[in-house]
Amino acid sequence: MTLSATSLKIPVELKSKIERHARRAGESPHAFMLRALAGQVEAEDRYQSFLRDGVKADEAMMRSGLGYAAEDVHAFLEAKIAGRRARKPRLVRWRG
Fold this sequence. Notes:
There is one protein chain. This protein has 96 residues and is mainly alpha-helical. It contains three helices and two strands; from the N terminus they run H-H-E-H-E. It has two domains: 12-64; 65-96, no CATH class. Strands 1-2 form a two-stranded antiparallel sheet. Helix 1 crosses helix 2 (29-64).
């Protein structure tokens, strides 16, 4: 892996918190910041992937005219959250 140096100016209060948390985690402030940055970048990658998947699903729904009734999806999710077995909602034609 090729490394690249960068300079990062952060508020003193944030630096103190990073140092404190790094000490508690048994790592250097540098390692703590790298882990935090990597986690944030990964979260942003997942979010962007989520958005792309949503756009693709919307485009497919617009082409096919098929989708899921919101009330069926809500009932499915509520059952799953409550730990109950639930049938996957069925596709329905939502436009002519």
